[in-house]
Amino acid sequence: EPSLAFLIVVFNVAFKVKATCCVICRFNVDIYSFHINSTVTSRYAVTVITSRVANRLNESKEVHFQVKIPKNAFISKFRMTIEGKTYDGVVKEKEEAQQQYSQAVSRGESAGMVSSVGRTLEEFKTSVTVAAFSKVTFELTYEELLQRRLGKYQLLINAQPMQPVADFKIDVYVRESPGISLLEVKGGLNTNELANAVTTTRSGTEAWVNFYPTREQQTKCDVCGENGLNGDLIIMYDVDRRNPSGELQASDGYFVHYFAPTDIPRIPKNVVFVIDRSGSMSGRKIQQTREALLKILGDLAEDDYFGLITFDDRIEVWNPELLQATERNLKTAKDFVRQIKDNGYTNINAAVLKGVEMINKHPREGSASILILLTDGAPNRGESDPTRIQANVKEAIGGKFPLYCLGFGFDVNFDFLNKMALENHGRGRRIYEDSDADLQLQGFYEEVAVPLLTGVQLNYTGSSNVTQTRFSHYYNGSEIVVAGQITDNSLETFQAEVIAVSKNSRVTYQDSVFMKDIAGVLPQHEHFTQRLWAYLTVKQLLEKEMTLNGEEKEAARKEILDLSLKYEFVTPLTSMVVTKPEGEETQVAHKPKEGENRKRMPQRPAWGLSCSSLSPCLSVIGVRFLISSLDQPKPVCYDLPAASKLRLLTDPSSDFSMNGELSTKGFNQIALHYKTDYSLMLNTSHILYHDGLNDVMFLWGQEPSNVSLILRIEEVDVTMGTVRVVLFRHKKDGEMFLWPAVQQQPNHVGIQGIFGKNNLEYEELPGSVIKIKDQDVKATWSTAADYRRSSAPVLGCWLVPYKSVLQGELSDFTVSQL
Ligand SMILES: *[C@@H]1O[C@H](CO)[C@@H](O)[C@H](O)[C@H]1NC(C)=O
Ligand SMILES: *[C@@H]1O[C@H](CO)[C@@H](O)[C@H](O)[C@H]1NC(C)=O
Ligand SMILES: *[C@@H]1O[C@H](CO)[C@@H](O)[C@H](O)[C@H]1NC(C)=O
Ligand SMILES: *[C@@H]1O[C@H](CO)[C@@H](O)[C@H](O)[C@H]1NC(C)=O
Ligand SMILES: *[C@@H]1O[C@H](CO)[C@@H](O)[C@H](O)[C@H]1NC(C)=O
Ligand SMILES: *[C@@H]1O[C@H](CO)[C@@H](O)[C@H](O)[C@H]1NC(C)=O
Ligand SMILES: *[C@@H]1O[C@H](CO)[C@@H](O)[C@H](O)[C@H]1NC(C)=O
């Protein structure tokens, strides 16, 4: 039965009894498993949250499912499984769904909702009634294209299961064909005690981040309490950019082009800041604005020209013309900024038109002009009709440069600001009223601080339904993404061309991909390019729709609706509806308004073991081990002879040890010991647990009778004290073997065993030499299967003798008895 993919065992592990008992008393509804699985393929992230809940009461109970997802994402799937029966959400037109929803409400049905929370997240909530002693599985999928900001992509995962969970894990997998150049893990969940629950592996084009906190840690960390974890895990990365014309990928009749050249000089700016100083800015807001402006002025380059306008019902200029950012001019500008005082009403129309006039009066060859408006309120002096202000500004700018509108605080008419910015090649941005508002302002400025290209036009041969192809400015640290359909299949190559203006000249970039290569799609990536295209098309249409009227607006809305229904995206025009067990349809999600096929990149040559008379083949019959960490771009591997009994991990301070017996592929036996009384022995057929008094025996895959040992189909997840290990059963060439993946271990010098050496620091030197602990070691570029994952991917690695990695003799790592 497919829903049995996952089993949980409760047994009487004494060091957990207290926690388990409390949880059962406090939470009659027990979330016994909470998994987040995120797969990022070429910046397109698909995240699945799976929560498994048991009603431990002898009566039926309403069970809630509540999670937070990034605002930028579209929900694309929701599913509930109750007593083996699956209830799938269906995406419908919003109005249609809303009618059913109001009927449901009038019948007293509860219904799901998505609402905006904080700066970056939206909350998804729903509930279902679950019979006595029954279980429900909730599964929510959302998709998003990660945007590059300040040189990094950021995947944000929020975890707040609402109670401590025995089987909690977050698994992130990133695959980027040009190679991953940087990987960082941040966020509240990667701090202090929780940091040792994070493990990372990076290998050329792939990266894995896993977060496996124990139940105890979920109640004792900084960002958690009685109700378990509550915080974010943020995975930041960037990709290699060896090809200045970008990365062109195609599959399944669709293409995507990522364009972010780096090796070009910055273009000097003409920038005008239009700053609201009306009465409502008084207090902290005006103070933070002054601080941010002082910092921003300090960051201007000497060949930039700038202007400052402050306004309430009157307009005041620091200087009537733009002036160069010389030291002297910056000094008087800073004095002007320090004296900005709040006062009076808000005349946005006159202030923005003044800024446009100043830029228009200052044409300069080879420069990029930018107008930035900061306001916290609605126009209420001078021209105060938003539609007329928008028309005036659009006419004055005439498409010549972008206008960015920053809306400060909650009283702004953000729709008005966003629309005005979008009509002028810019965008609106909210500045949240908080202690870090000055940093938010600076952060926004940094994104537009370094223009590298203007007038960017991208063209693609034989294509249609292409997303936006004209961009007024391209800034350092960002990325232009274009996707479309390939219509002409008779072409030999699919070509991309980019024409733009750089500091000194017009530039052209070209790239192409062979159509015959496009045919060979990896099955798992078959639809990724198409979904990315649909996501980007809907996102851009939602922005464009805001600036349109009448029939054009209707046409855009229809296109958004059609695509959202086809690709099952929950957008502001659609809703997710699910038919619950009671037979009632309920709306579970709608979106709040607010504002590998690929081109075949030359792979790293598969050197493997190179045997020659000069360097004879290392023909040890051994088993290969991998070591990887966040700080090292490439893993290191080493071989150990088969048939040894090895010390895998010992922590004398918590009385934990794990030993294993190596056969030819992996381990045939692994033993874990905790304190004197507890042990877990595994071989490839049996799992034997001993708690001092009783022995409990399981078979792999068996459903046991009754939490600190979690049995999944080909894995056992064990927590003992401060160590959490997932033990996998693999099969290769018909032979079964075991392999442990230490998901968590304490960080202190007392740790011993071969898996205790998990933070290897090394340096790559020329000539395939790597330096480990002040020793130069000859290395061979090789490969190793990563048995720490169920899929056992094959990774490239620097093969070195085990002695240099383990810093000891084999005898230091062997035991006489498991
Ligand atoms: C586990 O199951 C056994 C037998 O089925 C039972 O005696 C024991 O009390 C159970 N333990 C827990 C913690 O429920
Ligand atoms: C995560 O999702 C990917 C893609 O759907 C799947 O291949 C993989 O098995 C999942 N991993 C886990 C641990 O569930
Ligand atoms: C549920 O259990 C309680 C106490 O064990 C008992 O009093 C009550 O009658 C039970 N309810 C049902 C519906 O069985
Ligand atoms: C663009 O940013 C990169 C770092 O992300 C930096 O190395 C480079 O110098 C910047 N280019 C310019 C022209 O400032
Ligand atoms: C690029 O596309 C635009 C719009 O389709 C077209 O006007 C222009 O001539 C094209 N330029 C080149 C160089 O193909
Ligand atoms: C794509 O473009 C073609 C015309 O080239 C059009 O017939 C088709 O409807 C478009 N498809 C979508 C999904 O917009
Ligand atoms: C695993 O251990 C059990 C109990 O000691 C034993 O009966 C069984 O034969 C072992 N299986 C293998 C494959 O060694």
Automatic annotation (TrEMBL):
This is Inter-alpha-trypsin inhibitor heavy chain 3. One of its GO terms (cellular component) is extracellular region. Residues 1-19 form the signal peptide. InterPro entries: ITIH, VIT, VWF_A, vWFA_dom_sf. It comes from the Eukaryota. It is found in: Secreted. Its main location: secreted. Belongs to the ITIH family. Keywords: Glycoprotein, Protease inhibitor, Secreted, Serine protease inhibitor, Signal. Residues 270-448 form the VWFA domain. Residues 582-605 are annotated as: Disordered. Residues 582-599 have a biased composition (Basic and acidic residues). Residues 15-144 form the VIT domain. GO terms for molecular function: serine-type endopeptidase inhibitor activity.
